[in-house]
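Researcher: Sequence recovery benchmark, item below. Answer with residues only.
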């Protein structure tokens, strides 16, 4: 029998969504054959999870929990396959419990967090609901003043840390972050490679053609300055008062921006393009060969 390696267990876990020990046991029983282990799981209680785990879980919720002294917050993303499940109370209760346990244990390592009781609950929920469920991201934010905002749909959440000011201001800035999605906090935070890429784009624009090099550079500099202001949180007009920048709002409250985190459900996940007509035709046995 082939030796059961950690890589084999990980592969089976990735493909089925089931627990580590269950995957290891299945591999032992299947003599180290991953495909055979999946087949056996499909005949047992792991049927739904094994069937569903390969499907893209790009819906779900983003949630925030803030400490009572407003110096620490956790922001979490838990995914499901469909928005219908993301609104299911069983799914929401599971996501809230994950956040609560993580917060109480000050844990941001998802593998450690999900190594015990929570993983069993996730597996049970997969079985009950019939969709893949994943705990995707968990981020801690700390600072002198911290607060967060969750959009009413639970799809977007943000947390902001300030050096001073009030939780109300931090919450207002978090709401702005959720709505506007700034790329960086301050202009100097923009990665140099992004600035250079933007410069290349500007220089290649039609109105630059034929102009002297010094004019091109002057125009490029002006447009880069605009680009940085538009994409930097503290330079943006505050959504609740466009006559004031976010930076001015924070400064007026007696603080400065320390950092921010914004999570939007499913961002960065490649969603499967589903051809429903083809699916129906295939199910009916009328698809073209």
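Model:
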């Amino acid at each position: 029998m082939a030796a059961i390696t950690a890589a084999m267990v990980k592969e089976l876990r990735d493909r089925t969504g089931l627990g580590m020990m269950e995957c290891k046991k299945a591999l032992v029983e299947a003599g180290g054959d991953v495909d055979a282990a999946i087949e056996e799981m499909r005949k047992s209680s792991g049927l739904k999870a094994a069937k569903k785990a390969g499907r893209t879980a790009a819906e779900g919720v983003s949630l925030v929990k803030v400490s009572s002294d407003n110096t620490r917050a956790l922001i979490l993303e838990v995914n499901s396959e469909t928005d219908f499940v993301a609104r299911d109370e069983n799914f929401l209760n599971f996501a809230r419990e994950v956040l609560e346990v993580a917060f109480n244990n000050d844990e941001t390592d998802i593998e450690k967090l999900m190594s015990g009781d929570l993983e069993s609950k996730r597996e049970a929920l997969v079985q009950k609901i019939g969709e893949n469920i994943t705990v995707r991201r968990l981020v801690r934010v700390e600072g002198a003043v911290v607060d967060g905002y969750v959009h009413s749909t639970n799809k977007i959440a943000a947390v902001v840390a300030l050096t001073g000011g009030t939780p109300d201001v931090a919450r207002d800035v978090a709401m702005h972050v959720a709505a506007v999605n700034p790329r960086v906090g301050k202009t100097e935070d923009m990665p140099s490679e992004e600035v250079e890429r933007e410069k290349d784009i500007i220089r290649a624009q039609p109105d630059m053609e034929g102009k002297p090099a010094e004019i091109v550079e002057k125009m490029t500099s002006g447009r880069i300055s605009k680009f940085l202001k538009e994409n930097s949180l503290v330079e943006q007009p505050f959504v609740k008062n466009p006559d004031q920048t976010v930076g001015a709002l924070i400064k007026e409250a007696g603080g400065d921006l320390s950092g921010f985190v914004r999570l939007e459900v499913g961002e960065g996940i490649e969603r499967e393009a589903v051809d429903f007509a083809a699916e129906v035709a295939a199910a009916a046995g009328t698809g073209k060969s």
